[in-house]
Each structure stands twice: as structure tokens, then as C-alpha cells.
Amino acid sequence: MGRLDGKVAIITGAASGLGRAGALLFAREGAKVVVVDVDAAEAEQTVAQVTQEGGDAFASITDISKFDQVQAMTAATIDHYGQIDILWNNAAVINALYSSLEEITEAEWGLVIAVNLTGTFLCCKAAIPHMKERQKGCIINTASIAGLVAHRPGRAAYVASKGGIIALTRQLSLELGPHNIRVNAIAPGSINTGMRNKVARPENVTFEYKRNDADVDALRPAEPIEIARTALFLASDDVGPLTGAILPHDGGKSAR
Ligand SMILES: NC(=O)c1ccc[n+]([C@@H]2O[C@H](COP(=O)([O-])OP(=O)(O)OC[C@H]3O[C@@H](n4cnc5c(N)ncnc54)[C@H](O)[C@@H]3O)[C@@H](O)[C@H]2O)c1
User: Fold this and answer.
1) Which of 87, 142, 154, 236 is in the most buried spot, having the most CB atoms within 10 Å?
2) 143-156 pLDDT, tens digit each
3) Does the domain spanning 8-248 belong to CATH 3.40.50.720?
């Protein structure tokens, strides 16, 4: 028996990294999974991996910052699987450069906010009417330590987007509690994924910055599957009325 037997989960950003690990784990636990991403080839690769393991998934190539595409994705989910039990808002972008605020262009700022924060809002907006109708549902948002405590310099847009996701999680948990819809967030520190490895390169730093203790995990960076297990915990019914929680999974970074 799986912990998500009979459930349908939408996971955004599931073509790589944490989202892919989550899609595989949720499917192993019995969920039918909608793999949402802009990267069609890698999204199909996630679906192939789920199917190879005997799971059930399909890919929806959706830009989460576009409401018409998000509406089409939720409609396709209901057509295909009849319901939405879990929405895991996980897709995000990070600007490649560490740059000071005055160097960030409006276009760079706009893209990070549009995908990370507005994309989370739009996916919730599309799924909530269905969840309210059923009087049940579970929303998980991938935030970041960057939304909990000041991050290293050069990440203003990303930090603002993740702080917004944390505030939105708390707000929605209160608004949706009466409808039996739980809303929680995970705040990872470092995860060993393409995103982390892409941005950690020294050539991306446009100004002098000395690393300090606050940059270092007290334990170690997490593997994607380790964060995905936290999402599984939040997704499963075992947790009862757990809602409004922002769960740091950051190797102790935010404990300082
Ligand atoms: N990697 C880390 O160290 C780290 C740390 C803290 C939080 N996070 C968060 O974890 C989540 C997953 O990150 P990851 O490390 O797996 O990154 P990743 O870059 O491997 O995956 C992100 C996925 O989102 C997709 N995506 C980007 N824009 C999209 C859009 N407009 N619509 C749909 N999909 C889109 C990408 O194609 C990609 O597959 C993100 O929310 C990220 O901010 C990551």
C-alpha cells in the first residue's frame, strides 16, 4: 500500500531536479502524476522513468507564468484523471548572475517574479475552485531558505519571489482551511541539482563577495530525493490538520 494511493498530483518543474525526484517518489507511493514543465524532452523523460517503474504519469508542457496555459493544464488533469488532490508548486528560475540590485534589469526581475511567485499564484488560482468543490486538497509550495533569511548578496529578485511564496502560503492556509485544503511550504537550503550547480560558478559573481559561515550548511547539501520525502510527508493524510507550516530543510542554515 502506498501513502498516496488513489491520489492525483500535479508537480510543476518536474522535468528535472527536485520535481523529477518528487514525481518518481509520489508515483511509487501510488499517486498519478502530472509532470508540468516548459522543457518537453526532459518532462517526457520523467514520464518515461515513472512508467518504467510501473507508475502512471503524463506530461503537460506548460509555462506556469501564463494563465491560459495553466488553465489548460488543470483541465487536462481533470479530463485525464478526474480530480486534483495535490498541487506541488515547485518550478522556479533563478537569475544566472549574482548582481547588485541596481544592476538587475526590469526584465530579469520580471521573469523571476513571473515564474516563481506569479506562477505559484496562477496554479493555485486554477486548482482551488476544483479543490473547493471537493472540499479537500493539498498544496505544497517549494520556497527556499532565501525567503526566510537574507541570502548572500546578488539574489534580490529570487529572494523576493521566495519571500512572497512564504507569505502566500501562510495567507492561503488561513483562507482555505475552512475548505479542508492544506497549504504548506518547504524551504530548502542547498539541493544537489542543476539549479544549484549552475549558479554556484564563480564567473557568475559580478562583484566582490567573501563567503562566510552563513553560506555553509551545518550538515550538508540535500539530495533531491531527501527533499522530495519531505514533500511526501506534507502530501500524505498522516499529518492530519497540518497547514500553514514553512518547513526549513536546509541542513541547519536558517538555525543561526
Ligand atoms: N537547487 C537548490 O539548491 C535549491 C535551493 C532552495 C530551493 N530550491 C527550489 O527548489 C525548486 C526546484 O529547483 P531545482 O533545484 O530542482 O531546479 P531545476 O532548475 O533543476 O528545476 C526547475 C524546473 O522548473 C522548470 N521551469 C522553469 N520555468 C518554468 C516555467 N515558466 N513553467 C514551468 N516550468 C518551468 C525548469 O524547466 C526546470 O525543469 C525550485 O523552486 C527552487 O527555487 C532549489
Assistant:
1) 87
2) 999 999 987 778 89
3) yes
